[in-house]
Predict the structure.
Amino acid sequence: MTEPKHDVVIIGAGIFGMATAYHLLKNDTNLKVLVVDKAASAGAGNTAQSAAMYRDTFSSEVNLVLSSTTRDFFRYVQNELGVNLSLKDITSLVNG
Ligand SMILES: Cc1cc2nc3c(=O)[nH]c(=O)nc-3n(C[C@H](O)[C@H](O)[C@H](O)COP(=O)(O)OP(=O)(O)OC[C@H]3O[C@@H](n4cnc5c(N)ncnc54)[C@H](O)[C@@H]3O)c2cc1C
């Protein structure tokens, strides 16, 4: 049997596949990660169609925690780390 060339193979180069690859490599730069996609380029599936909106109005506790902590993370990256994510907080804009 031939030796495997990669430690991890990720099927699908959408936002979840690429984020998974990013975090795996961030934790271990020696990992050999292969991302494959049936499309010609990365992010050509649902990721390309996303309106890139986020909300934190959910009825389940889990979704509320996930959405509000994600929102806070995005705000931190843009406001504290100074990385321009083109993040516009519509609620804040509406409320002044
Ligand atoms: C019109 C629209 C608007 C949206 N708006 C928002 C929004 O405003 N906010 C929000 O949070 N979410 C939104 N979403 C949802 C969001 O886009 C998806 O939840 C997210 O992009 C899913 O990412 P993913 O990586 O799981 O899937 P995908 O981006 O679809 O990636 C999956 C990848 O796997 C590949 N693939 C599939 N099968 C195979 C195979 N057998 N072999 C190899 N490759 C394969 C595909 O080509 C694709 O590139 C929207 C979705 C749509 C369709």
